[in-house]
Amino acid sequence: MLVYCILLCSILSAVSEIRFASYYGSHMVLQRAPNRAVVWGTASKIGDTVTVAVSGQGHQTTKVVKNPEGSGGFWKATLPAISEKGPFSVTVTSSEGQQSLDDVLFGDVWICSGQSNMDFSMSQILDSKAEIAKTLTFKDIRIFRASKVESKTPYEDLHGIATKWTAPTNESIPSFSAVCFLFAENVYPHLNYPIGLVQSSWGGTPIQAWSSPDAIRKCPSQQTDSPGDPSVLWNAMMNPLKRMTIYGALWYQGEANAGSEASAELYACQFPAMINDWRSKFNKATDGETSQHFPFGFVQLAPWEKDPTKVGGFPALRWSQTVKHGYVPNNKMADTFMAVAMDLPDFDSPYGSIHPRDKQDVAYRLALSGRAVAYSQSVQFQGPFPSSFEDQKEKNYLKIIYDHSPIEIKNRQGFEVCCGAKSTDTCGEKDKWHAAPIEHYDDMTVTISSSACAKDYIVGLRYEWRTSPCEFKMCSVYGLDTTLPAPPFIANKIA
After folding, report:
1. Could you tell me the pLDDT band of residue 492, with boundaries at 50, 70 and 90?
2. Cα–Cα distance between 482 and 126 in angstroms, integer?
3. Which of 175, 295, 349, 439 is deepest in the core (most CB within 10 A)?
């Protein structure tokens, strides 16, 4: 009996020595072909042979090496490119034992990150009971949620899991990110293969907390208070995920960086620096299986305070989210897509007006743009945006020509002009802006009054430049066929 116990204990001990990393689990989604999924974990015997097998799809062998980012042994394997949905079993075997993952699907894996509006859960949105019931029908959308952890130094693996991999259930889905899941819910019917969602988000956090030291160095000095210290969330909640092959990322953040013009100006550097750094690090850690150009979608800041006259820091932050282009993708933000949300206020939200409950419209718009940019589907995904201007000074008019027509006008407000004594002037921070109501419009142009600059020149133009520019879906310019809002913009000089 004693010998039996010793033998059994030895076997159990051996089985426990080889492990998958914490975020690999039964019921998960691994990245489908043409990309190849990377799996990794730990073991104790350096030099030991490790076999990773996918049921019916072959196997890969690798060696246990000294852990490059920690102590002990480390193994990593790149699976065959698998386009079949599954389910499959994934098994890792070595002389130290065996571990298996069951009910594994192959599809597209998206990481969802940011602050409180990405953290905003399915249980908090409008009509949450019905929306949660609907999620339960999407058995091929699987979810995983990382715990909120920060660290001054990089972690190799997650130090906490809030929700293990699972299909939507009445227990798991209420606490999961609404924007993240509803995005997948909108995209899924156009793909018809599994989607895996990894939520790693934390309310109230600035972008620098999610940026690696390499990204931080790309921009001027960035200092904040914990849990927003530079890189603390990259270290603990993003760096550990970089060895997993992903298809793309979703981001809803910016409120914590919208405190001033200076912080908004800095964001125009921070945001593309973080995106490019994530792409580079995920690509390198997966040996090229995660694309170095993976699609990155984000939500432009929604309204906040009810005062329709307040400018505040949100308009400048929205502008910086597009690196001062007004739209994406652009030449500084390739392979990105965006949902405009400035016309979706919820001033009566019990969670505060900075947390609007209508995540359904946000997710629909984000999914529409994602289908176009991330999946190359032929859909109109952008609201109208100016392509040129005609200054009709003799009539005190300024004509705005839009690139996406036909347009729909819901009210005649929203535009403002800035005046200068010379045509070569530009509108400065201290210059005054004047209302420029719409006088005429047709299906592709808007003509606004420039009478405020009758004795001067128009040297600046801006649109919906307010924290909360309009009532629900009632900003000025929309696409008639798409119902998508024209995004905010500012032009400090009208050529």
Report:
1. confident
2. 23
3. 295
Q: CB–CB of 450/396 below 8 Å?
A: yes
Residues in the chain: 495
For residue 42, is pLDDT > 70?
yes
- Pull the structure tokens for residue 397: 């008019």
* 248-275 tens-digit pLDDT: 999 999 999 998 888 999 999 999 999 9
Q: How far apart are CA 258 and CA 316, in angstroms?
A: 8
Classify 222 as helix, strand or coil. Answer: coil
Distance between terminal CA atoms of the chain? Answer: 91
Measured distance CA(53)–CA(59) in Å, rounded: 4
Alpha-carbon distance of 14 to 2, in angstroms, equals 18
pLDDT tens-place string over residues 414-461: 999 999 988 888 888 788 999 999 999 999 999 999 999 999 999 999
Q: What is the pLDDT of residues 7-37, one digit of tens each?
A: 444 444 444 489 999 999 999 999 999 999 9
Residue whose pair of structure tokens reads 């939507």 in the numeric block: 168
The tokens for 462 are 């801006």
Amino acid in position 428: G
Distance CA 427, CA 494 (A): 10
Which residue type does 1 have? M
Q: Are 297 and 369 contacting, i.e. CB atoms less than 8 angstroms apart? A: yes
